[in-house]
Specification:
Length: 281
């Protein structure tokens, strides 16, 4: 599509939204754009002589361009509005860098997601991790433990043991959302918390998995410390910040073609305040 025609489409879209002075549907926007294009470029121009063909070809292309996105925004309810009426006020994501999955720079993706993770409220971070591990272990029932008195376990998961009737397999997860390195004291506390669950004779647990997840780093000896504590029927593993983000990318959490604002707003709305537009009348 040539630049002049692209420019004309965007100008027509802006004009339609300005006159409407409210959010409008794609069908209504396309109808308005085609009307203005016919006025400006003529009715016989085959590129917009039919609304269906224009929507399928030209419109589908233009909405993916940066020039369009700078002028017109697509809302959560699949309606359009002038971009100036839908501003992200937080400086959290002020970046000119975007990527797509055809030529993705994973280093950029990691850096952006990690910077956001470190801003999330600690308890809401636990909820985020619970949603992630549920995707990885769909047959396990996970619950976030209470904020106080959790005994060192932040997320507790169970599922029936297929080999032993009336027995359950357990996943115990400790979550740390910080930038620093997780040290030996944290490993020892986690091991102790899992061991207390193993020793609880009042529970019909058969197998135990201990998973330590942090948005930070681990020293080289951390995993060795966990593995050395393993007993029969028990195993330990850990995810650092890089592995956590790899898992999020794998399950499509937190990113679309760039940072997924809707996702992060659901995780912790306080980190992405938005200026809401007027509701459609």
């Amino acid at each position: 599509m040539d630049k002049e025609y692209s420019k004309a489409i965007i100008e027509a879209g802006v004009k339609k939204l300005t006159v409407a002075n409210k959010q409008i549907s794609e069908i209504e926007l396309v109808r308005g754009i085609v009307h203005y294009l016919k006025e400006k470029l003529g009715k016989d121009d085959t590129r917009h002589s039919a609304k269906g063909r224009f929507r399928r070809d030209s419109f589908k292309y233009i909405i993916g361009t940066e020039d369009w996105k700078q002028s017109i925004a697509l809302l959560e309810n699949k309606k359009y509005v002038l971009a100036k009426d839908y501003e992200i006020q937080s400086d959290l994501l002020k970046t000119n860098t975007e990527w797509n999955w055809q030529d993705v720079n994973k280093g950029i993706a990691h850096k952006n997601i990690l910077s956001i993770l470190h801003k999330v409220d600690p308890f809401k971070f636990e909820v985020l991790v619970k949603d992630l591990v549920k995707k990885k272990y769909p047959d396990v029932v996970f619950d976030v433990t209470v904020k106080t008195g959790d005994g060192g376990i932040d997320i507790f998961g169970t599922k029936p043991d297929p080999t032993q009737k009336d027995k359950e397999e357990v996943i115990c997860i400790q979550v740390k959302n910080f930038k620093k390195t997780v040290g030996r004291p944290e490993a020892d506390k986690f091991i102790g918390a899992v061991q207390r669950i193993i020793n609880d004779k009042n529970k019909n647990y058969s197998k135990f998995i201990g998973l330590f997840i942090t948005s930070g780093k681990y020293p080289k000896s951390f995993n060795n410390t966990l593995q050395e504590s393993c007993t029969t029927g028990c195993s330990f593993s850990s995810w650092d910040g890089d592995e956590l983000i790899e898992q999020m990318l794998f399950y499509g959490m937190g990113v679309k073609y760039s940072i997924d604002l809707d996702f992060w707003e659901k995780v912790d709305s306080a980190i992405i305040p938005r200026q809401k537009i007027n509701s459609e009348k």
